[in-house]
# Entry
Amino acid sequence: MSETSTKPSRRIQAIEVGGQLLAVLVNQRQPMSLSTLAKAAQMTPSKAHPYLASFGAIGLTEQDPISGNYGLGPFAFQMGLVCLQQQNPIKLAISEITALASRIEQTVVLAVWGSHGPTVVYLADSNRPLHVNLRPGSVMSLLGTATGQVFAAFLPARMIELAFDKEWRHQASRPPDAPTPTLWQHEATLGEVRQRGLASAVGNPIPGISALSAPVFDSKQSLVLAVTATGTSGSFDATWDGPLAAELKACAASISYRLGYSGK
# Structure
């Protein structure tokens, strides 16, 4: 271990105090007057003004010459773009879902849209064993699983229609003369997923196994990942408004926020 790593990190209090102003501008997502901005950052206008002047000098903030309101500046914009370019959604999400699996004591699965549909890329195990054949590379049913429903609800309809038709045609158990179902027949289910920001599957497709899945979006407002908690039905709370659902949605929202999702 290096000598520097054993010493406590030195911090500059003035930067942390001034950073409260930047945090308010980020959270509010719109320019603000000096008095309103200072109040939201829990400081006086006279204290806030020197920070804003310094931030303005380097482009972190800028003041509108007509209204006098303060907003984020061009350098803040460039910093945000570089940060987004450096983010790896899967790598970022792994640390989040690993912590989630530990908190809720359930297996948490990370899935992306692959060439064959919703595809598992990572599993975060808990101390409760889950005896199912689920591993990285597993492809999830579009409408038969909570993970698949998230992708079906939030990806472009044409993309899902093609994938749904392909999945149906490759089902070994379907009757040879059965009519091909259409995606619109499941619109009520998908509409509920969009409304709740959550998909649920209880005892389906595997009896005794339940799951909840939540979407992760990026800065372009596009779905990039699905985070799914799954476990045995007897120990898994699959209710829409239960504590497990709240934890899952908060985890997905945290990943989305770090990927630049505005929530709008």
User: Anything to note?
Assistant: The longest strand covers residues 223-232. DSSP finds nine helices and seven strands in the chain. Residues 161 and 182 are 8 Å apart (CA to CA). The radius of gyration is 23 Å.
